[in-house]
Amino acid sequence: MKLSTNFLKDYIDIDVDVKQLAEDMTRVGNEYDSASNLINATKLVIGQITECEPHPDSDHLHLCKVNIGTEVLDIVCGAPNARTGLKVIVALDGAVLPEKTIKKGMIRGQESNGMLCSIAELGLEHKFLKPEDSEGIAELGEDAEIGGNPIKYLQMDDGVIDFELTANRGDLLSILGMAYEVGAIYDKKVKDVDLKHKESGEDINKTFKTEVKTENCSKLLVKKVENVKIEESPIFIKNRLIASGIRPINNVVDISNYVMLELGQPLHFYDADKLGNKLVVRMAEDGEKLTTLDNVERTLTSEDIVIADATHGVGLAGVMGGLETEVEPDTKNIIIESAIFDSVKVRKTSKKIVRSEASNRFEKGLDPERTTMAIERACKLLEEYAGGTVVTGTVEYDKTNNKEKIKFEIENLNAEYKVLISQKIKDLTNTTNEYQREMIENTYKELEKDKTNRIEQLQKLLEQQQEDLHTEKIKKLKTAIEYFDDILKSNEPNRYILECLIDKIWIYHDKSVKFELKPEISRLI
Description:
alpha+beta
């Protein structure tokens, strides 16, 4: 999971260096592979070409005078689109780019004090580049400020952390999930997701039907958005997708990927005029053929879940859509599908056919509430950034039973919590490791001292939100005690992490102790 720090800041107010954030996330059990800026280049500035003349000894080079605000530089440039008046990215003498270091010198007898850069030379992966990004120098807008920071102007001043998530942390495969985790670390509140949009016209339930013929689909939601305009996405959407490792295509397709990254719920957009007025979820027939979006004909079995129209398959559920109903540049009307499919079935299908960002999320299980949030969020963004009109109503099929709740009394958990912790601490203090025993004893003392205040704080927050805890959440909290043995066997010499029922305790080498609310609780409050 690649985390864009700019994307994260849409939902939580933090001011932390990308590497520090990565380290702090590691301390709560989320390891990372790399942490760096999206663009790793130095000494770049916005300039404007004030003069552009042909090089006397070359048929393709230009002699440019470039105003960078503090001075005017002579720069030799070979880009075919170099011209007077153009605002450009200037790499100054000593600038370090991903594949080169810029030094002033002589080019065919003419002085050159820097380089005018293309987007490709900033270090983006090839898959994110358009032809013009490498065929010529970057052409900045008229609003680009001479002497300013071009990376900031391009909204590419982003940090990227590539996390190596464990299989049980599917909740972190979304920006919102990451925001809750980071919020627990820094004691920050997560902002609400904006789902507001207008609806108009005849209710979709009167013109569109769904049918679920398999128990391997527990939730299916369908909405329709009409009169969308396919065009290039806003720059912030493109850059957040790029930072997350996904290639931008157009505003409509990008919005489906944007929402998946944002909320962790994969969506599929169909060209409504190609699909017809019915969507069916069923198991495939042995030998059934389906051409997926990558233009490959797949041969299916009865173990694969298929999305179909009234007559034949149009998509592989949880894995990839079908080519026949693809959103194309002339698409006007969109059917949005948001669903939950059996994670085991999706995993088996994706393993034999193709792994995708969508299948990765379906395999780890989805939150039914996010399934609803995602389809509403997509409608909001299609309305705002594609000019679409959201049709009234939602076609709904829901067998998730996610509304079942239990009565939860803090006092009861307090008593059970004390008994479980006390017994486990008693067992652990019999260890022969003096250092471990001393740390555990110190932790227990701190835990007892902190417990009353922590319970009261949790009680107050729960009352404010009027939130009950789900049965499944209680089960997870009760099993947290089992982490103790594994953690004590940790090979990391500088810290031990003891996780308790309602507290997360960080114990460092100097025996200092830091408490945080457990993420499961933080997500509820």
